[in-house]
Amino acid sequence: MSPHVHLCLVLHNHQPIGNFDGVFEQAYQDSYLPFLEVFEPYDALNISLHTSGPLMLWLAERHPEYLDRVRLLVEAGRIEIVGGPQYEPILTMLPRRDRVGQIQSYSSWLQRNLGVTPAGMWMPERVWESGLTADVAAAGMRYTVLDDYHFKSAGMAEEELRSYFVVEDQGQLLRVFPGSEQLRYTIPFRPAHETIDYLRGIAHSNPGAVMTFGDDGEKFGTWPDTKSHVYDEGWLRSFFDALTENQEWLHTVTLAESIQNAAPAGKAYLPDCSYREMTVWSLPAESQEILDDVSHAMENDERWGHLESFVRGGFWRNFKVKYEETNEMYARMMHVSDRLAKAEASGHDAGELAEIRDHLYRGQCNCPYWHGAFGGIYLPHLRNAIYEHLIQADTLLQEIEGTLHTVSATAGDYDYDGQQEIRLSNESMVAWIDPAQGGRMYEWDLRGINHNLLATLQRRPEAYHRKVLAGPSSAGGDVASIHDRVVFKQEGLDQMIQYDRYARKSLMDHFFDNEATLESVSRGESPERGDFVELPFEAKLRRGSDRVQAQLRRDGNAWGIPITLTKAVTLQEGSGNLSVTYLLENLPPASPLHFAVEWNFAGLPSGADDRYFSDVDGNQLGQLGERLDLTDVRGLSLSDRWLGVDIDLRTNRDSGVWAFPVETVSQSEAGFELVHQSVCVMPHWIITADAEGRWAVTIDIATRCENSVELQSHDHVNA
Length: 719
Fold this sequence. Notes:
It is a single chain. This protein has 20 helices and 26 strands. By secondary structure, it is of the alpha+beta class. Among the domains are: 5-274, 7-stranded beta/alpha barrel (Alpha-Beta Barrel), CATH 3.20.110.20; 487-713, Beta-galactosidase, Chain A, domain 5 (Distorted Sandwich), CATH 2.70.98. The strands form four sheets. Strands 15, 16, 17, 18, 19, 20, 21, 22, 23, 24, 25 and 26 form a twelve-stranded antiparallel beta sheet that branches. Strands 1, 2, 3, 8 and 9 form a five-stranded parallel beta sheet that branches. A five-stranded antiparallel beta sheet has the order 10-11-12-13-14. The relative contact order is 0.09.
């Protein structure tokens, strides 16, 4: 057999639910459009193209001419459309009904709008577990692309990975192409001839081999420095020229053509895995550092080439452990999914259920559920978008169930930790309280604007903080892989790294030294003198005709002094107000104690004049990024005119109030950056007991949602 090789070029273009319109447009102008313009004249070249559902819907609305051009290339046989789950979820975190439903939903959309029914799919973030095989096959998919790393983790050698393989589960078969890590790192970062030379060597050693490149289309223009490299300096044209010049032995083919023309290399059973970098990111920070140190120490050892494949990182599902906020979103999503399944079984209107299902599917988009080099959970606008759709789905479900306009209190293990949580609900809001974790409120949904005020983020160590502390650097040489860049988007980030001892939630009860200040508390330098922040409270639910109450009580201590703390959270029917009454008992006489209640408000960003603080008289006190140290006041207001919400916190006794921003230093594809996560508001008092050893305060929070979000249908998705 004469030396030849088949090359499957598989592009994955994606923008997540909730990303800014300007980001979509910039990626279109920098990546998607210019790639198509360069590709069109090369008649001898074929590719497989996956465009995620969120991006495809945006293109259909904003740039239908782009889809017209793609459609012509599909009809010419030069582009194969690759399907997948509609809103790009990590399939392993979904129940089976949603895995199959998402894939089938997108296949139906592609059939209606592009006239193609895909036979293969893109596996989001290449997160794989064997149990997916049967579900993916049941959804009508015959093949997908993973990384060669998955196969190497199963003990296979690189020289064996020269075609696709068959995987099996419960008698169901799926064909899997091993995407080459070597090609991922040379395309487009190395000169085109290096890729050609690599493939020429394979053509001689394995004539007829099928090699697969499967990676982000954003590498071609959107990733930092790649636009000038790929287009202005002509890398993509030089690559396509090289492919064309060598087409006698180097054949670019689609995934579908490969299956038609080549037999599988054999059967494989792959371990639970994802691409190499993702397995590292899912590890705890300390474990990441250890793995990184060991890898660097071993990379020049002659044995490393044989050992590297067996040195694995972590498991994607552990992002739900690494980031408690991921588990909160996941549990909220599952709560909606379970209720939707029950509503379907009850025979509710199919059109109403389809609208709810679309919101659920949008709320499953993967990007904010994890974190690596691509922002993920650190990006508030992506977290907010997930909650926006889950809250709207929840509201619509209650509407068809007939429970929306009643006030209710329920208990259940809502976050899958083996403990009971509390859900207080009326037509204006839903408050979720965790008695086992300090009686804190961990989610607070405002239905009028579909917003979770507690979509916050705790500041925690990240392995890449070592790079931040070391300072920016230049990768040098040719354009660098996104994983090698150390770029600061702001100066002084090494001085801004800070970690939180506790989650950034609300109803967090602190005892500080009497000398504690705004600066010491905001910096996390004030010792916690009580045991009320995270330890369990006893809980009781009280239900009246027009109100419900969660009563939480703990016999704890501060400075070793036994103290009983009771807080009662009350929600009334039809009200946008939440009332919390605190009662502290068994206080020592004539011993002033410093008590504070922490509240956090997410999604109200800093740095804009239309997001501001006000005093009780309506006088503005500055933007929401300001630090406030107020004394002898009865409250504070937060306003966000863009979001359309006012939050008025009032106390029934004179209080000190601290307010400060919570900001993270995190990594994104453009570099290291400071991100505003929430506004912390902390009423505090130097308390002195009455004659009976008691002290009490009531905190009322009124929420007003202007321009309340209409419960709009997304029927255009299925147009």
